Please model this.
Amino acid sequence: MFRYIVRRILWGIAMLFIVSAVIFLIFYILPSADPAVLRAGRNAGPQQIAAIRHVLGLDKPIYVQYLRYMRDVFLHFNFGYSYQYSVPVRQLIFNRLPATIWLVIGAVIIWLGIGISVGIISAVRRRSFVDRASMTTSLAFISAPVFWLGLVSLYLFAKDIGRFKIFDGQGSFAGASTVFEKAGAMLLPWLVLAAATAAIYARYMRASMIDTMGEDYIRTARAKGLPERTVILRHGLRSAITPIVTLIGLDVGTLLAGNAILTETVFNIPGVGRLLYQAISQSDLTTIQGITLFGAFFIVFFNLVVDIAYAYLDPRVRYS
Amino acid sequence: MRSRSRLFGVFLPGLLAVVSIGLAACGSSSNKSSSSGSSSSGGGSASSSAVSSEIAKFPPLVTAPASAKKGGDLTVLANGDVDYIDPGAAYYQPTYMIDLAVDSPLMGWPPNDTAAPQPLLAASAPTVTDGGKTITFKIKPNIHYSPPTGGGPGWSKPVVSADVKYAIERSLMPGVPNGYTTLYFADLVGLAQAQAAVKKTPTKAPNLTGITTPDSSTIVFHLSKPSSIGLIDALSLPVSAPVPAGYAAKYDAKTPTSTYGQHQLDVGPYYVQTYQAGKEIVLARNPNYTAGSDFRPAYLDKITVQEGFADENSAVRKILTGSGMINFDFDATGEALKLAAQQYPKQLTLTPGGGNRYIALNVTKPPFNNINTRKAVIAASDRLALLDTRGGLLSGGLATHFIPPGIPGYQQAGGAAGPSDLDYIQHPTGDMTLAESYMKKAGYSSGKCTGNCTVTMVSDNTPPGSNTAQVFKAQLTALGFNVQLHPVEHATMYTKFCSVVANEPNVCPNVGWVKDFNDGQAIIDVPFNGGTIAGSPTNNSNWPQLNDPAINSALESAKYITDPTQRAAEYGKIDDMIMAQAPAVPWDWDYETNVNSTNVIPVVNSFNSLDDLAFTSLK
Amino acid sequence: MSVGISDFSLEEAEAETGAVELVSGEIAARSPWELFLRRFREDKFAIAGLAFLLVVILAAIFAPLVCSLVGAPGPYRADQNALDIFGQPTGPSSAHLFGVDQIGRDVFSRVIYGARVSLIVALVSCVLTSAIGVVCGLLAGYYRGWVDTVISRTVDAFLAIPYLLLAIGLASACSFGNGCVGGLIKPGIPVVVAVITFTSWTYPARIIRGQVLSLREKEFVDASRSLGASDFRIVFKELLPNLTAPIVVFATTFLPQAILYESALSFLGVGVQPPTASWGQMIADASNNINTQWWYMLFPGLALLFTVLAFNFVGDAMTDALNPRSKRA
Amino acid sequence: MSIEERPAGAGPSGASANGAPPLIEVRNLVKHFPITRGIVFQKQIGAVKAVDDISFEVRRGETLGIVGETGCGKSTTAKLLVRLLDPTSGQIVFDGQDVGAANKDELKALHREMQMVFQDPYSSLNPRKTVGSIISEPFAIHGLLKESGERRKRVQELMDRVGLNPEHFNRYPHEFSGGQRQRIGVARAIALEPKLLVADEPVSALDVSIQAQVLNLLRGLQREMGLTLIFIAHDLSVVRHMCDRVAVMYLGKVVEVAPSDELYSFPRHPYTGALLSAVPVARPHGGRRRDRQLLTGDVPSPANPPRACRFHTRCPKAQEVCSQEEPLLELKSGHDLAACHFPLTEAEVRLRLPTGLSGTAASTNAHGTGQIADQSSSSSST
Model:
């Protein structure tokens, strides 16, 4: 188990190198704005641009730029300066991370709560009306693009423009100061972001639960005369939930890595996803690179967590 | 330079640096006489016709009402961030909103004065000697620095003249990427040597021998040419706000960028208390500021710039329906403008932005190297449809030439109607018959383009710029052209295509120019002076690449005209000369559409057409 | 697209091969195809979905005809008169069934033409993704050793890159001029297809590799080899036919994902470029004005929702029909 | 065992003349599967010694049985023989040609001469192919009988020959029972009329009632076609029925080789004795009570086999020397080659072996069927 973890960690670090190199390359060949010209400003002379290019290290060959960058990252945890904001990228990301974490954590709680309970109910009442209705509804949520769902929900429920003024609207998170205000501002984004995922989890949970409930030990538990409730919650749930763990880890990882960008865009949440999108449109290479590394880190990290959790939860797959 | 994100699309927030590129305000105004702007203060007087009637419904205040009272917090909603919080590098009109409140350059602009800068850090107007080659300032005594941004030990010594010298010197460092010093301070003695020195040691501010400080309250500028007027104007820009070398040098030594901005010391009535890039800027009262030491009344207690309001419509709606809010770097456009104008007319102000938008036709390449083809394109263009992509006639005036309302030369160039002798600009919705006749003159016997009619167009990839491009594409297609439209990010559009001489496409539909000062030169010199093309192959602002000797020499000599009337007439004439070459389709004289909550009394500073934070108050 | 393709799990795929034999074991007389059809027909939602898809496909193919039938002006004509004095679009009317967009183009026509983009992107990227994934999975699973190491590690690395970031980067890299990879990937739909394929092939590759790893241990592979069969023959004639079920299951789950993916890219402005109509991009255009211009957001969104839903219904039914152990109702 | 020591006259059927070179000759064959470990770079830290230096040969027309417990390396040997695995070292000479060194083309040609019947009739037939295409696969691979009519005719002949209804050539494997499937496998194996057939536990997955039919089919084919057969089994009773000679393997080594009559009546290696003693007897009450010598302990790991004699950890007769010195495979009595320092004595054999097996050396195929009653019906129902 220990060797396995160490190996996974080392491979994860190697992966960060590869990923950053790939991203470096892609954004290097992009026909994007020249950061030196951007920094220098409209009336800057060629001399001035050259000086800035030199200071930014943009006049060096790409591999030198990459190695320098990697050296700073791994030796000094320094992700460089944003071309766009002239502040350390690390600081930018840390500034934006709380909003994304707010978004993701709330959504995770909602989608787990809804997904798992709907999944269990559907599995227990298999082929009932409830089951069919919830599975069909879940398919509808899976089929709706999250950005459209967000816009529709704003149109219907936002306090400023909604037809039913229930939830805080776009951009309210930025101005929220207390925890309650923040949670209030996040409610609608949480629900929207959680919708599709909750639907997917419900379907998985249902499948997994049906599988589990067919196992011998469940029959044994029933035969012992345990109440059905206990059988389901104590015996069934525990092993049925194991495959879900994999999903949680991966989904949280990719969301933190910037995949919440669509939700952040629609609800105007100043998170990492939005920062990333701005950085891309600004050719802010150091910021892009920084977010990518952070994102890849999250993905690698959560993959690792998943593997370990999985080995812990299900002794059958324990690694040696 | 005034450019707000509406120029860059509603979808992408924070296109800051872009701004300094896009519509950088950069015309030099070195020879502008001190009275040249007086005819156009506020912006209404120079306008006429239907355009002025729309704009007149939403006039801005340019002085604080007598009833204005002290106190209260203001929230400024922003789409993106400032370009540079460091006053030495700031070059973005909304950033000037902050700089006007926190910095004290030698000279400054009260909201109601567009004619000439007034003394701010300077104790009085400068003394000009040596035939305009030596300028001497005395600075006010006992000015103290604010606590630094972000906290920490500050700088207790009072402001001395050497601090101003250092502020200008550091702006030559690559870590303080200032876009205008080399332009405005070009005639300063010792500039070239200083530039050479900084190239060698990029982490140390060079010594500018042209600036001397005989004593702690005196600073003297030595010029190689008698261009004192331009220099005095330039000293109203934030670059001359004092920066003590003893405090800042350690931050300036950082590579690749100076971190002084995040630890800056201010001397205005406010100071930058905290700065979180892309998120929030908090301005608080400067505890070390002596009230009444300059012309800024500073009513508000605290100003918070909240960034990240990517959707301008919702931000505008929030401002209109909320309390204690104004807008920062975005305009009310489209739906939001409609909402404000129809339901909250008292909370909307329209100010001529002193800028234009045009569609540049590359005159160096076929098919637009033929003047008749260009005239045909202008004749065919439905400029009202183009204007509709930005929100119709409330968003800007229908342009017929380049100098916009509010800038001397506008009337002389034809006013709202445009040059009367040019038939192709007379039809706001286009005239296909006329266009076809020009196409015939250009050699296309059918009146439509035949043969190799492929033209490339590089545009914004977000609305409204992308919409403008699509509408114009349809208009070109109607003339028989096969348009290949490449939408890219706004910044990329400039730095990789439209501003790179070798890469320039046939059509750049999303370009424009905004004044820095109220002067015709500031509008038409840089973007149409053919002499500038060769010197900036990758940073060219003459997008049509118009290089007409007559225009070039006219622009050159107009710089030295000091009589305001004569100067305005001359620039009006040059504007007409440019229009006669048909290098571009002017279609928008942009308005600044500022909105405020009901309890805010906004005062617009004509310097940048935005609300002046030091004059704005709450009811 | 927060969850992407995780909808399809390895476990599920692994159940497939087992299922194949079970199917056969149960009812020996019926061919798998008959069995499949019988199961599929039982699903009413799937039949409805199939019917809807048929309509969408026909509408996409005959888009010009559909537009002219209802008197719509087509997707590119900007009608200045349909804008008000603020340059704002007007809503549904007899002239414009679904209203017009920001520059006065007919939303109905654009929705119909948008179907073309969605379907073409989905189909082509699905075929390419499956093909690349299957070949890589086959090679990795069959040869193991360094081939497997290289492919599996590449897959791992791909999975560690935030895929939307990669997609945005690639899409911008290829969206200009002649495109990228020496003009092979041209701007527009080819870029979107390439991006989707590039970021998705790892999923079928992983699934297929897993399948092949267990399949290659079956004795019929040894049998074929002991007859002197070449690797090529073994991989494509022996193994591939046994992978039909997982491939079909993957493809049917992937099609709706690809449509959503395309719309997300277009929504972010890096997908299909204007003036070509795409549902995602229309929603993006509409997103700023949803308050007053609901029609511009609503109709492309509904088109997207119903199409994806129909694909999902059909896909679900196919998965079930191919996998009798399926846990769906 | 060296060729010189080969017991003369062991060939029972007489199909191949004595003195003729053997069809297949295995010399010092070794197959090690590496065990690797490492965090980033994998390094080899050991090997599973599946087959560890074995030698034997098979004469033309002969049937050689290879027996041993699961994991003793017999299936690996089978795969090495037809080069489904590459040997680590050693030689396999088939008809004068080194199988291990054959290149792609040579191997393809070799595969026309040697074929294999697999253990599991369920997984050895591609479920996605019809019986017809499975049986004609050899022709397709080798480009024979290119006309489809010709090929079909031949396939149907083969089906008929192995006892399948030729009409069924269009059916899929799942429509057949386990025994029928194994017949399909046999048909495929003999399609090219090979010289050598390696049958790797061909009946262990079948129902007891079916086993005999398949064995008889193989036996009949061998006679008819003059096949040389290598028959692998973990069940001694099956082997005896089929084979002229038997090789017993333990942990990658051949511990005893003898003509089957000799082996069954007088095994010399204690391991063989133990295996024989474990065979259940068909009529226990009719026979003499015997001392069953059951093996204790587990089979040691082939990754780390015991030193010297590999059986010494479990051998009832083991002494000091067994763990010091590896016994060589040498002639112990008659034609019996065994690798043991202390071979079984006649008395020990009598005490331990069931009468049914050891009683009459002349027990022949005639009643073999009845004896095939053992524990091996692990397969699922058809």
In short: Chain C has two domains: 1-30, 46-328. Residues 1-29 of chain C have pLDDT under 50 and may be disordered. The radius of gyration of chain C is 23 Å. The interface with chain D takes residues 20-21, 24-25, 28, 218-220, 222-230, 233, 238, 241-242, 244 of chain C (CB under 8 Å).
